[in-house]
Structure formats: C-alpha cells, structure tokens
Amino acid sequence: MPDTAAIEIRPPETLREFYGLMARTREVRARMVEQYLAGADIAPDDIRSLRNAGASLEATPRSKTDDGYEIVLDGERRITVDLTYEISEIVKDLVLLERGEDALYEHLATLYPGFTSQVDKGVAALAPHAFRALVTDRDGTVNNYCGRYLTSIQSVYNAVFLTRFARACVPHAVMLTSAPLRDGGLVDIATMPRGAFVYAGSKGREYLDQGGTYGSYPIDPAQQQMITRLNTALGELLARPGHEKFGLIGSGLQKKFGQTTIARQDITHSVPEDESRTFLHEVEDLVAALDPREQHFRIEDTGLDIEIILTVGDRGGGLKDFDKGDAVVFLDEALDLGLAEGPALVCGDTSSDVPMVAACAAKNAGSHAVFATVKQDVRDRVSRTTSRSLFVDTPDVLVVILHELSKQGGNG
Questions:
Q1: Which residues have CB under 8 Å from 25's CB, separation 6+?
Q2: What domains, with CATH codes, occur in the chain?
Q3: Which of 90-99, 209-218, 302-311 is predicted least confidently?
C-alpha cells in the first residue's frame, strides 16, 4: 500500500526546514484532536504522518559529541539542537493513538518517579471543589518545556486532556502566557478546538475569547507608537549580515502586545558568548536611542533572551511592569469571567505566575493554586500567597490530574 501521508520521512537539514516540519505536525495533530474528541477513528494517513515526522527528526545527523542533532543555521554553519521535546511528544502521541490512554499512563509512569502517587494526591485534593475558572500558564505548567517556542507544538494527548477538563469542569478556561498571541505565538502552536480556551498572550495584554473575538489592554497611543518603532528597528538590526540567527534560535523575535522579546542565545549555547554579548549591547544602544529618558521601556536580560518591556502607570502615579496579576483583573472585566462569584483554579510554574494566584485569591478566597515545579523558592512563594496550594513535579502530572477530574464531571 503506497504511503499517502502528508508528511514524508525527510530529515530537516536547516533550521527553517525543521520549523516547517513541526508546523506541519500542528496541522496533523489538530485534525487528530478533533477526531479523538468526537470518538471517531483517527485517519491512518495522519498517524503515518506523525510517525514519519518522528522518524525524520530521529534521522537528523547527530552532533560529533552526541549531545544533540546538527542542523544548518546560516549558510554552512551548523549548530547543535536538542530535539528531546519534539521527539518525546510524538512518542507519547503515538502511544495514545495506537495503544490507548491506559498505555499512555503506563508510559508516563516510566518517565516520572512518583507519577501515579502525585496524580492520585492531586485528584483527591481537587475533586471536592467546583471551580469558576481555570487560569493557567502554558510552558512548564501544562506543556513541557522546549528549547524553541515555535517548535513546541501542542501534543494530541495534551490537547485532548485539557479540552476535556475545560468542557467538563469549568465555565471558563484561560491560557495566559507571556508569549505573543499570534504571528508566531500561542495560537500558532496550539491544537485544541476553537472555543475550548480563551487564549491570552503578551502576559494577558491581548486575547482571543472563546468565540474567536480579539481584544487587548488599552495602551496609550504614544507608547504604541514607541513599540512600533522599536519592532521596526529590531527588524532592521536582524537584517544585518550575521544577525539573522538571533531571529531563529531559542525564542527568536517575538513581537508581543506591549513587550518584545529577542533571543541572544539558546539553551545549547549555539552562539559564541562574545557574539551574544555584543548583540545584547547593540539592542541596549538601540533602545537607549529610542527612549533616552527611560520613560517607556525597561530591559531585562535573562542570559538567553532580551526582554524589552513597556511600562504602565501604577496607582501611586509611578511606573511598573504589567504582570499576570494585572492581566487577571483585566481579563475578568473584559470577558466577564465572574471570578468573584466562585473560586478559580490557578496553575503555574514560576514566580512570574504567582501574581495570578494573588489576583484570583483577592477575587475569591476559595481559589486554589497548583504549580508544576520542584524549585523550593517558588513553592515557598506560592504557599505564602495562598494556603490552598498543591505542587507536582512536571506538567504531564498536572495535565493527567486535570484529565482525571474531567472523568468525574464538574460544574461546567
């Protein structure tokens, strides 16, 4: 029987080809999710496509040190990339699609020590409660981390489990992330059906509601003009010889609403450190030329990404960064979430997600927090913010807890 799958076995040679391959798996996975949720048979060609995508990635040449795979970055220059996320998520999807949910649970139990006990504990803690809304971060919380945002395509199992929870257990489900919403953002890597979640990008400054309507946080026209000028200048900077790679590695260039991120390094340190630091200084000089009195922007360097953040006024008349707590207040009002009418279930994994917990608890003291982290400082901060907290080690544990809760029904 000829292979009529949309994706053939063809190892990507360049970073652009790799991005293209993963974008095609999004199309295939989105179809699979619709079929799976409807209880329909999964198209055999789509399963073959996903299997061929995994085979293509595994056939990519290994690096000389065997610590990753080699792909052409710019011209003849090759970099080592970690494909653990992309390959392992395809494996999980194929286990689900070919062997079923019990087999997937068994597979996950082999990956994570204490998987079953953590799931059981989480279900027992949350099952007695009815929630008005799910407010969750994405990466590191309900989606496993990936070295590149645009290839962190949402897996079939992940989309199915989250959609089932959203439909069965809460009137409103919000995915709130610092990544951009569109044009290389959240909606471009998601595979859930339209309407399952509200997608809120750029730290919640912009959103697509469950009907697909776009909305955004009000920004002063002068500040909007400043960030437009910033993005234009960054595009020109990336067009210079030797600079294109900074738009391709790691986070790449993310033009968010009210904030812009540009990578200067990735987790495998594919760019020499002196080049990376020189690029950082060039970006700093660019921002200083645009905003010499530092009235509009603040720069934060993570070592991998350069975050250029548009400041907002605080209640005391000063300036502050827009955080995810501000986003919760904004989204509650804009979308009529009714967070004061019932407790929210808030999920995160880093300190930047804690303001969501505080904002939801201020709306309703019965709100709960579940964080996917082993970092004790983050756990301590969450515990200081609310006594109704639960901690798990990995996103997959949290997603399975939500899936198990969906089987028990809910107040949706």
A1: 7, 49, 50, 53, 90, 153
A2: 1-112 (1.20.58.1800), 221-320 (3.30.70.3080)
A3: 302-311
Contact 136, 174 (CB under 8 A): yes
Q: What DSSP state is assigned to residue 246?
A: G
Q: Which of 143, 157, 140 shows the shortest CA–CA distance to 100?
A: 157
Q: Which residues contact 81 (CB under 8 A, 6 or more apart)?
A: 15, 18, 68, 69, 70, 71, 147, 148, 268, 270
**Residue 317 predicted with pLDDT over 60:** no
Q: What's the distance, CA 14 to chain centroid?
A: 24
The CA distances from residue 144 to 93, 148, 149, 372, 396, in Å, are 14, 12, 11, 10, 7
Rounded to 5 degrees, what are φ and ψ at 321? -75, 140
Q: In what order do the strands lie in the sheet with 133-136?
A: 214-216, 206-208, 198-201, 172-176, 133-136, 344-348, 368-372, 389-392
Question: Across-strand partners of 81?
Answer: 69
The pLDDT tens digits for 93-112 are 999 999 999 999 999 999 99
Read off the pLDDT of residues 338-392 as tens digits, 9 standing for 90 and up. Answer: 999 999 999 999 999 999 999 999 999 999 999 999 999 999 999 999 999 999 9
State the number of CA atoms in the 13 A half-sphere of 249 facing the CB: 28
Res. 156: pLDDT tops 90: yes
**Helix axes of 84-99 and 101-111: crossing angle, nearest 10 degrees:** 150
DSSP 105-171: HHHHHHHSTTHHHHHHHHHHHHTT---SEEEE--BTTTB---SSGGG-PPPHHHHHHHHHHHHHH-S
CA distance 389 to 286: 43
On average, the pLDDT of the chain sits at 91
